[in-house]
Amino acid sequence: MVRLIIDTDPGVDDAFALTLAARSPEVDLLAVTTVFGNVGLAATTRNALRVLALCGREDVPVGAGAARPLVYPQPFEAKAVHGEDGLSGRAGFLPPHARGAEVEDAVTLLARVLDESPEPVTVAPIGPLTNIALLLAAHPHLKQKIDRLVIMGGGLRGGNSTPAAEFNLWCDPEAARRVLVEEDVPAVLVPIDLTYRCAVDGTWLTRLRESGPLGEELEALTTVYRAHYNQSLGFDGTVLHDAVAVAEAISPGILTTTRVPIHVDTSFGQGRGSVIADRRLTAAEDEPGFRPVDIALETDLDGLREFILDGLR
């Protein structure tokens, strides 16, 4: 069984990722922590609580974390993609969480859960990396308690927030650099190069809706998100970026990784927040300013879509 913590900024695809983990019999979901990102921290925390309530998992503690990046303000949120409330205007239709968020902040909750765990824990950050950067800076002795980080973020061939940068890393490039380049915790990076290829179509979403009340509720969360991808992808479907990363956290090896030295750009040029991957045949693992990271670039696309669908329904 995988011992798992999810750090998230729900977000429609985050809601799918949370549900996948919360409903999986292979997962011991130890905690959920929230961060600013797709919408503000108050909304991401509310959304995480309500998705867990929808899944019948109010036993999972939720800690609210960073409300802003480490250094510079977040340029803009992703309300145009996810809706004003982060869930296509449907957050208020989800059941309220009886307990609410923990008194502990996200970093304190992360540190306590890791410290108390008898075995190493997988941590899946699927939003900006601010909470994880703070955790590793404040509690470096807990690195040994992290089995691996499975991170959704980055794009080797370009971004979705800027021509160069993917949203999660672009929200807090300084945090992303600290976690991905300056730390030594084992990490798998799941970039948009792969997640876009894992897009699901209208038929898949219909199968989800027809699977039962939970599937119906999840499909209803996608209206704004689906319309955005309808326009950007040119077909009726959507991209479940974060669920792809959580699938790897649940089932290690479902994504095929390649070890690549990477750098995160924290300059103020056009490349800010981008991942620079050294894919030369002569690339050195000790290149200054780079760290080797396992990057997920391939998978059985149809098999992955079925894995996620089966988990959600």
Automatic annotation (TrEMBL):
Ranges where the Inosine/uridine-preferring nucleoside hydrolase domain occurs: 4-302
A molecular function GO annotation: purine nucleosidase activity
Record-level GO cellular component terms: cytosol
Record keywords, A-Z: Glycosidase, Hydrolase
InterPro entries associated with the record: Inosine/uridine_hydrolase_dom, IUNH, Ribo_hydro-like
Superkingdom: Bacteria
Gene Ontology biological process terms in this record: purine nucleoside catabolic process
Record-given protein name: Pyrimidine-specific ribonucleoside hydrolase
